[in-house]
Specification:
The chain contains four helices and four strands. α1 crosses α2. The protein is α+β, with helices and mostly antiparallel strands.
């Protein structure tokens, strides 16, 4: 993978500029970052990396017009020298194909249950040795 530090830092500076113009967005964005750190889904990056497998992951804010809630988006599709993190990740099975079967089976029983999931995008933790993404965050 190519060196992605410059691309990620350029995106971070752009995000900081956007946040400097909107105090409410900045407060909510920083709150989201702090929640990731507090819950152990992220950790401060070391100044020097010992891994050759390193990718700096850009992030940005998305606000739903009706909900007015800020959501962090980690951009694994951000390209550096024509490559992105998504290119290096293994793809899972195509779940869209089986959607019709799910909908048909959903109506088979007398009672249907649907679990709700919140905050799924950052809901997994990994072992320290398998972490190789670095998310640039302003100090």
């Amino acid at each position: 993978m190519p060196e992605s530090y410059d691309t990620a830092m350029r995106r971070l500076r752009s995000m900081e500029k956007k946040l400097s113009k909107n105090d409410n967005l900045k407060r909510e964005y920083c709150e989201q970052i702090n929640n990731l750190l507090k819950n152990g889904y992220a950790e401060p990056a070391p100044n020097q990396s010992t891994s050759e497998r390193l990718w700096y992951l850009p992030h940005f804010a998305v606000t739903h017009p009706q909900k007015k809630k800020v959501r962090l988006v980690f951009d694994a599709a951000a390209r550096t020298n024509g490559k992105c993190l998504n290119d290096a990740l293994l793809t899972g099975p195509d779940l869209i194909r089986s959607l019709l079967g799910v909908l048909v089976r959903f109506r088979q029983g007398r009672v249907a249950c649907q679990p709700t999931s919140r905050k799924c995008s950052c809901g997994s933790k990994s072992e320290r040795r398998s972490r190789q993404l670095t998310i640039p965050v302003a100090k």
